[in-house]
C-alpha cells in the first residue's frame, strides 16, 4: 500500500481545536484523523479510518479465535423488545428515540441484548445448539449529557458487542472466562496496558461484571487496587463495615449551641473551642453529615434523598448514581428545600429524616428518604444537626437515638461515600490505592434477565424447558483507538504502535533535487510492492521542516529521510519514538534501504504488546 | 476458512416467510442469511454478512483503483447543513428526524452530499487540491412509505456513496466518466448484468444523471430502450411532441348528451353508437381524459392537480412524481371533490380548469391547477367532459377552445402519461421497448448546487475564488446483494457466483460411517489450509436428504459429497449450477479431491463476469 501526501485527503493543523481537553482528541484532529460533525459525533478521515479498521481487525480475529460468530444488527430498532426488558424507560434521556412516518416508536440502539436474545430465540430451541457466542462490530448511539474528550465519550461510536448463550451456570462461567481471555489477548496485541477490575452492572443488569481499564490520568473512571490483588471500579467498592459498639456507657444525647456552624469545618472548630473533649480533638470524622440530593427517575419523577455519612467524607456522585441506577442524581434546589421546611440547611439531624420521623399506618417513613453510610453502625456516636439553626446535638448514638445502618436488617444503607487511598480493601487484602483509567472493555455475566423477559428457553437434555443464561461483552473500538493515541504520543504528535499505525513507514523526500525524489519514489514503491504500508511525502514544494513536523504529528512508526545524504549514497532511517526499533537514527546505504526498513518493520510488528497490570 | 454446519449460527427454513414477494427475499431468509428486525430493517446472520462483505470488498477495490479515498461519516447528523440546501424540508416524510436531549434537531442521513461538501470546504482551499474523489461504505436511512422485497427497498441499508470535487466542468466530466467506468468494472466483477440509462435527478438536484439497472422482471424501475441505442429510466423519457395542426376547417365545439359515460370505455361506446364518424370509429385516443390528483408538499400542504391526457393513456404516478418532486402524489378524496363542486366526476372538461377558467387580477389561474400531456398541441381535437353529468363536448380544439400544451410558451405541460412499447424514442432512434430492472447504481453530475448552498469555493490558477463543481455516485451495496440473489437462484435455492459466495466449497459427509467423516474432515481441512473457503456439513445425525436440500438452499457454488463412493475410493464433486465448472458431477479419487476442487474453484473465480447490455 502506498499513500502519497500530495494527493492524500489530509490537512494537518498547527492549532489545537478549541474544544479539545485531552491529547488524543487534540492530536487526532490536528493530524487529520478525525473531524467533528456534531457534539460527540465524528467523521473518520482516511488515516483515522485505517487505524480504526486495524483495531477492528484485531478484535475480530480474537473473537473468531474464541469461537464467536459475527453477525450485524441494525442500529435503528423497534421499541417493543426494549419495553419488554424495561430499558426503553430505564435508559431515560440517554436513549435516542424517534418515530417513523407511521408513528411507530424506534430507537438508536446503545447496546443489543434484546435483539440478540430474540434472534437466538427465533432460530434455536435445544440445548444441543448451545453454547453459542455471537458478536458484531457496529455503530452505537447514546445521547450523552456531556459528550467529551473526542472519541472517548461520543454519542455515535463503534463497539464490538458479543453475547454468549448457555444452558446452565457452568456454561456461562466457561463462556465468560473464554471472552475474558479473548479480551486479554486483544489488548495484549494492541499494545495497550490494562487492569481488570470488579464493576457494577448498572442498567445492564446481571450478577457480576468486570471492566477492562486502561490506566491513564485522563481517564474518566476511578479504580482501586490493593497490594494483595483486589481491584475494582470505585463504584463497585464495598465499605468495610466496622463492628457495632456497645453504647451502655454512652451519655444521653445533648443539644448544644453551635452558632454559625453550617459547615463541617466550622462545626469542628466550634466543638473544639466550646466543648473540648479531654482525650483528643474533635475531627470531622466525629460528625454525621446529612447531604440533601434529588433523584430523578428515567421518566422524570423527582424524589429527595438525604445521605448520612461521616463528616470527613464527601458523597461520590458516581458511586451514588451506580447505587440508585437507573435514577440520576441532582443537587437539591431552593424549591426542594421550600417544600421541606423540616430540613434546616446546615443543621439537619436524623430525627426529621426517613423512619426516624415516624411511620404512617402502612409503615412508610414520614420523613424524606434517608440512606446511611455503612459505617454508621449501632453504637457509633455522632455530633450532628439539631434541626434548629445554630444548634447541634452531641453524643447522638446510632441504634439508640436513630436507626443505625443496617439495624435489624433495615435496608437503609448506601455505598455513596468517596473511597480514599488507604481505605481497607473489602477482601482484607490491604489498603487501597486509587488510580484513573479509560474503560476499554466491560464483560457481564448477565444471567437470565433478558432471556426471562423475552422468553428465550431451550429444551434441556431431559426434554425440559429451561431459561437460557447469557453473558454480554463489550469493547469500545473507537474509544480503544483514542486510548492508543493517549498512550502513544509526545508533544510533537502521535506515535502509533506498528500494529495499528495507518502506515508502517513514512518516506520523506527533502529538498528539490529530482534525484532525491527518484530515490525516495523507488524506495517507497519497492517497499509497497513487498507488502509494507508506505506513506510517501512526495510534495514537491514543501519545506523539510514542515514535512518533518507533519511526520511527527502523523505518527507513523518508522521514518525514512531521503535528502542531502543521498550524495554520499545514504538515507536516514529512524524510529518515530527514540529507542524503538534499534538504537535510533541509522545512515543506511540507499540500495540497502528497503531491506533494512523491512527488517525494522518486522521487528516493530513482533515487538512487545500490552500487558495486564497486577 | 472452515465453517462447520454443526456449530454455524444458521437455521434453514422450509417455509417461505409470509411477507416475501420476491425470490431474493424469500431465499435469503429461508437460507438463514438475513432476518427481519422491523419493516424494511434486517439483521445480517453470519452467511449473509460474509456475502455482504464480499460485495463491499469488490466495490472498495474498484473505488480505490479509480483513485477515490475512503472516509466514513456519521449516520446521525445535525439539521443545519440539510437546511442550508433545502433537503431538510424536501425529503419530507422520507427522512428519519429526531431530537437530542438538548432539543437539537438531528437526522439519520439518507445521503451525505452536504457533509462531504462541508468537509472539503473545511480542509481544502486551492485548485491544486483538486480533483478529489472521496467515498464511504456506510449505513443509510430512509423512511420509505412502503418498504418491500427484503433488501431491495429497505429503511436501513448499506450504500457506497462517492463524491467528486472539481474546479471546472471539464474536471467534473472526467471525474464522472472515471466513476462511470469504475461502476462498469464493479458490476462486471460481480457477474451482474446491467444497463446504463438516462435518469432524472430528483431531490438530488444536478444537471445530469444515469442509473445502472439490473434487468429483471421483479425490478421496481421501468426503463426503455430503442434499437438505435437510446436507454432511459421511464421517468426520464420525454414525449415526442407531434406538430401543431391547423384548425381552420374544424367545426365549432358542440355539447352532446352522453348519458352514463363516466369512463373512457363507456364514452367511446356511446360516441360510436350515437355520434358515429364516417371515416373510422372513435377510439379512446380521441378523448381528453382529465385525472384529478392531489400533490402533497414535503411540509404537508395539499394542492389539487388535474392532468389532461389522451384517453388511451393512464397517468404513470412514478413519472408524475418525478415531474413534481419533491411533492408526493395522492389520489383525490371525497373531501377534495367536495371543496371543488366545479369538478363533475367523469365529466370534467378543461373549461373549469387552470387559466381556462379565467385569471385573477395578478394573472393567477382561477381553476384548479391543470397540466397537459405534451401531445395536446394546438389544433388537436378532443371529446371531453362538458362539466355536466351525462354530457360531453365534441370537436373541442386545443389552442382555440382551451389553452393547448405549451401554447405561447405556457408552462402547462407535464411528463405524466405512461410510456408504452412502440412509442418513439425521443432521439429518433426508433420505437421503444420496455423492461424492468433494479436500480443498483446511480451517478449524478451535481454541478454547483451543494457547493453554492454551502459556500465551497477554492482559489483558481489566477487566485480567483471559484465555486467547486461536484458529482455524486451511489451503489446500493445491500441491494446489489439482493440483485445477485435474484439473478442466481433456482427453485431449490440460491446459487452464488464464486466471487461473492459465503464459501467456495460445501463439503457434505453422508451416512454414519466414521471413515466418511474422517475423509470429509481431511478434505475440508486440507482445502481450508490452502486458502479455500469451506463450509463443511459435519452434522452427525442429519439425513443426506436434509443435507443436500440445505446445500442447494445455501447456494455454495461447488459441492463435494463424501459418502458411499468412499468404499470405492471416490468422492463426488459437482457444481451447484449444472453446466458450471465443467460438465457436471465428477467422481474423483479421494486423494485427488482437494486438488481437483482447487482447480474448479480457480476456474469458477476466473469465470465470466457480468456485462453491459446494449
How would you sum up this structure, described in words?
Two copies of one chain form a homodimer. Helices cover 25% and strands 28% of the residues of chain A. Chain A is globular. The model of chain A has no long low-confidence stretch (mean pLDDT 94). Chain A is an alpha+beta fold and 614 residues long. At the A-B interface, strand 2, strand 3, helix 2, strand 4 and strand 5 of A face strand 2, strand 3, helix 2, strand 4 and strand 5 of B.
Write the layout of secondary structure elements.
The structure is a homodimer of 614-residue chains.
Chain A: E1 2-4, H1 23-30, E2 34-38, E3 41-44, H2 46-65, E4 69-70, E5 76-78, H3 80-84, H4 87-90, E6 96-99, E7 105-108, H5 113-123, E8 132-141, E9 156-166, H6 169-190, E10 195-199, E11 208-215, E12 221-226, E13 231-233, E14 254-257, H7 264-274, E15 288-296, E16 302-310, H8 317-324, E17 328-331, H9 334-339, E18 369-372, E19 381-388, E20 391-397, E21 432-447, H10 449-454, E22 457-459, E23 465-467, E24 469-476, H11 477-487, E25 489-490, E26 493-494, E27 505-509, H12 514-529, E28 534-537, H13 544-554, E29 558-562, E30 570-575, E31 586-589, H14 593-606
Parallel strand pairs in A: 1-28, 4-8, 16-18, 27-28, 27-29
Antiparallel strand pairs in A: 2-3, 5-7, 6-7, 8-9, 9-24, 10-11, 11-21, 12-13, 12-21, 14-20, 15-16, 15-17, 19-20, 21-24, 22-23, 25-26, 29-30, 30-31
Amino acid at each position: 500500500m502506498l499513500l502519497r501526501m500530495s494527493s492524500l485527503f489530509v490537512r494537518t493543523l498547527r492549532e489545537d481545536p478549541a474544544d479539545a481537553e485531552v491529547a488524543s482528541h487534540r492530536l487526532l484532529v490536528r493530524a487529520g484523523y478525525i473531524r467533528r460533525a456534531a457534539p460527540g459525533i465524528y467523521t473518520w478521515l482516511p488515516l483515522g479510518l485505517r487505524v480504526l479498521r486495524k483495531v477492528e481487525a484485531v478484535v475480530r480475529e480474537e473473537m473468531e479465535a474464541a469461537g464467536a460468530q459475527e453477525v450485524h444488527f441494525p442500529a435503528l430498532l423497534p421499541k417493543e423488545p426494549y419495553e419488554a426488558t424495561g430499558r426503553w424507560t430505564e435508559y431515560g434521556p440517554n436513549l435516542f428515540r424517534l418515530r417513523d412516518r407511521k408513528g411507530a416508536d424506534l430507537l438508536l440502539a446503545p447496546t443489543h441484548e434484546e435483539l440478540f436474545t430474540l434472534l437466538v430465540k427465533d432460530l434455536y430451541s435445544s440445548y444441543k445448539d448451545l453454547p453459542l457466542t455471537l458478536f458484531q462490530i457496529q455503530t452505537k448511539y447514546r445521547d450523552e449529557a456531556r459528550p467529551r474528550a473526542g472519541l472517548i465519550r461520543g454519542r455515535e461510536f463503534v463497539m464490538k458487542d458479543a453475547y454468549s448463550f448457555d444452558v446452565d451456570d457452568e456454561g456461562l462461567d466457561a463462556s465468560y472466562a473464554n471472552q475474558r481471555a479473548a479480551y486479554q489477548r486483544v489488548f495484549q496485541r494492541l499494545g495497550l496496558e490494562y487492569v481488570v477490575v470488579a464493576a457494577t452492572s448498572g442498567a445492564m443488569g446481571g450478577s457480576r461484571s468486570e471492566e477492562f481499564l486502561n490506566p491513564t490520568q485522563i481517564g474518566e473512571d476511578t479504580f482501586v487496587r490493593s497490594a494483595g490483588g483486589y481491584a475494582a471500579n470505585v463504584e463497585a467498592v464495598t465499605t468495610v463495615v466496622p463492628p457495632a459498639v456497645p453504647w451502655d456507657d454512652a451519655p444521653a444525647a445533648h443539644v448544644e449551641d453551635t452558632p454559625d456552624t453550617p459547615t463541617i469545618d466550622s462545626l469542628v472548630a466550634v466543638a473544639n473551642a466550646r466543648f473540648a473533649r479531654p482525650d483528643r480533638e474533635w475531627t470531622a470524622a466525629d460528625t454525621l453529615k446529612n447531604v440533601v440530593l434529588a433523584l430523578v427517575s428515567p421518566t422524570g419523577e423527582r424524589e429527595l434523598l438525604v445521605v448520612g455519612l461521616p463528616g470527613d467524607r464527601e458523597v461520590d456522585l458516581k458511586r451514588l448514581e451506580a447505587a440508585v441506577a437507573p435514577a440520576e442524581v441532582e443537587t437539591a434546589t431552593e424549591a426542594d428545600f421550600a417544600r421541606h421546611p423540616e430540613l434546616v440547611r446546615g443543621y439537619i439531624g436524623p430525627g426529621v429524616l426517613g423512619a426516624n420521623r415516624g411511620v404512617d399506618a402502612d409503615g412508610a417513613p414520614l420523613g424524606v428518604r434517608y440512606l446511611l453510610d455503612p459505617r454508621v453502625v449501632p453504637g457509633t456516636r455522632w455530633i450532628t444537626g439539631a434541626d434548629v439553626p445554630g444548634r447541634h446535638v452531641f453524643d447522638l448514638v446510632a441504634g439508640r437515638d436513630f436507626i443505625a445502618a443496617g439495624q435489624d436488617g433495615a435496608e437503609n444503607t448506601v455505598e455513596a461515600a468517596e473511597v480514599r487511598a488507604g481505605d481497607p480493601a473489602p477482601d482484607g487484602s490491604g489498603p487501597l490505592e486509587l488510580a484513573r483509567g479509560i474503560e476499554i472493555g466491560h464483560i457481564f455475566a448477565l444471567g437470565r434477565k433478558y432471556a426471562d423477559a423475552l422468553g428465550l428457553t431451550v429444551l434441556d437434555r431431559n426434554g425440559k424447558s429451561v431459561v437460557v443464561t447469557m453473558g454480554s461483552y463489550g469493547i469500545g473500538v473507537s474509544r480503544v483507538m483514542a486510548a492508543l493515541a493517549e498512550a502513544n504520543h509526545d508533544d510533537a504528535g502521535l506515535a502509533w504502535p506498528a500494529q495499528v499505525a495507518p502506515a508502517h513507514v513514512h518516506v520523506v523526500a527533502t529538498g528539490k533535487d529530482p534525484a532525491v525524489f527518484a530515490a525516495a519514489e523507488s524506495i517507497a514503491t519497492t517497499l509497497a510492492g513487498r507488502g509494507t504500508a508506505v506513506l510517501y511525502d512526495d510534495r514537491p514544494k514543501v519545506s523539510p521542516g514542515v514535512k518533518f513536523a507533519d511526520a511527527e504529528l502523523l505518527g507513523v512508526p518508522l521514518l525514512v529521510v531521503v535528502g542531502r545524504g543521498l550524495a554520499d549514497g545514504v538515507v536516514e532511517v529512524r524510529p518515530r519514538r527514540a529507542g524503538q526499533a534499534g538504537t535510533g537514527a541509522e545512515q543506511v546505504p540507499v540500495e540497502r534501504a528497503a531491506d533494512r526498513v523491512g527488517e525494522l518493520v518486522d521487528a516493530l510488528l513482533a515487538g512487545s504488546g500490552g500487558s495486564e497490570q497486577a
